[in-house]
Protein 1
Amino acid sequence: MSAQHGARILRDGFRGCKRCATLSRMTMHPITIQEPFRAVFYAPFYAALARGDYAAEGVEVTLRTGTIPANAKDAVLAGVADLAWGGPMRILLAHEADPASPLRNFGAVVMRDPFFLLGRAPRPEFTLADLAGLRLGTVAEVPTPWWTLQEDIRQAGLDPTGLDRVTDRSMAENLAALAAGELDVIQVFEPFVTLAEETGAAHVWHSAAHRGVTGYTSFTSSTERMQARRAEFKAMLRGLAKTLAWFAATPAEAIAALLADYYPDLPPARLARCIARYKALGLWTETPFYPEEAFTRLETAMLSAGAITRRPGFAATADNGLLAEAMAGWQ
């Protein structure tokens, strides 16, 4: 299914009958959703809860907080959560280990890479080929940012294995090392970018979002749970569609005000600047349709990085059919 076809399903799907919505709400089971960790680029997931978009579709959703990204899918497999959100790369890794893995992705939200390269001084003509000879601090907390960056570096004609790269520091530590002159360039996401700009410590050299659509965050569940809770998951997708449309049309300041309780350590003005930057980059989708192109770009990066040894393929790991069902004959 093409992205254009997916968008048409969503557009036409909101034209259905209200009576169907009323009937479906009578049989909804409460749903538990697992958070991988708290991050600004996950903002739409919190907005769906804060706005009550799931509840408006008749399903009660409880957030199970998390701090370890790799554990989100495990919560689904263990049955302590009905679904999670997180990187599709986790499902590719699961299918690498076991081609019969029951895990699937559906409901796209983050379809561009949310990471950046920062340097101490402005460098508007920077290209990835310029990393040769520079000391680079990459993200240690999660692997996907390096996997996608190393693929882009290869495409720029540079061997990523030959870079002078520091791999064992947190993003906060790398930002401090950059300011101290111990590193030349660092890889971080928001809010570190906005914080660095506010303090004058660093400037953006490269936005990974420009690599094109890339499967970064979606819902994850098992095939068994997707059948057992099909009505609830379809209701959630309808709610998520409303969230994403609202997110696209709403100023960053209003979004930040709504989500302040989810980011207690971020001043609202800083959170608004983070959200505005991501909105300008087109980080978040306007519908929950998962483009196969985004999956393939992620799969290719993981393959060249050696994270997987074969291509499991979109059909084996993702499901847009649930979304098509959710939006058919609905308003």
Note: The two ends are 22 Å apart (CA to CA).
Protein 2
Amino acid sequence: MKGLILCAGKGSRLYPFTYNRPKTLVPVANTPLLQLSIVKLMELGIDEVGIVIHPSQETSIREKFGEGQALGISISYIYQHESKGIAHAVKQAQAYISDEPFLLLLGDNLISASLSRLKNDVELNEAQASLLLAEVEVAQDYGIAEIQDERIVGIEEKPVNPKSQLAVLGAYAFTKDIFNAIDEIRPSKRGEYEITDAIQRLIDQQKIVSYHVTDQLNIDVGTMDRWLKANQKLLSSDVSMNRMHSSVRLENCTIVEPVSIDKDCVLKDCQIGPYVSIGEGSKLENCQIENSIILNGVYSKDLPFLLKNVIIGDHSIITSVQTDEGVNEP
């Protein structure tokens, strides 16, 4: 079985942080989202991974992961030149996948559930597809599965009148049959080739489409708020894990776990946490920070206020501003 991760999206809702960084390289607890997806596949023994990218993203992603040697896997890069939907992205990988079953992940999703049951469905249980589902509050924002007698009988992308609250998450297992199904669908009203339409085609052809419902963490890291939430949840997932690099220097600091502090950071007279990630090479002095993401190379000193629920960009400089006596602050 191979793995396939889709990474070609622009991440425009995370601007300005994704102007010069692919969305799937934004860090959660100081780990790029794409790396978290790769690890999910490696947990299942998958060591051949295709990554679908826009050509403009290749330099950044290849610089981080190369051909996968450092992780002990083989990574291949596949181009999607135009953003025409998930099914279109999957189609670009047909030659790479060939006749093998594969696990498909959306590279901007943080998924905690094990994917072993999806893998087993297509490898051992003769299913042509297997989906990870979860109950959601606003079904109109997702692809929604209709279930009857413990079988998926229908699936619809962002329905006006949803037939359930079970949403399709960003994890799927497929056999090669999905490629024929993609060939038979047309663009949706929003001009995209929807993976939900391709799955519906499998259902219409009486193919076996299995599913598993999870109540574990799944977050589409597509907005600032969800990025902060993902950071908080991942830090909380294993509070016993030491996420402070050995090169970090602390002087007179209070650390409120869970936090993640990357290499070569220097902190003095700070109170950090809970739920704070601080990127590589940052230098902070006399700061108080909670539930925030500080990216690489940030310099901050003598802040008279609490930094909370914020994301600070790479190499930002934040210091207090002294005002002349008698001049009112705005």
Note: The helical segments are 33-42, 58-65, 86-92, 94-97, 116-123, 177-183, 195-204, 224-237.
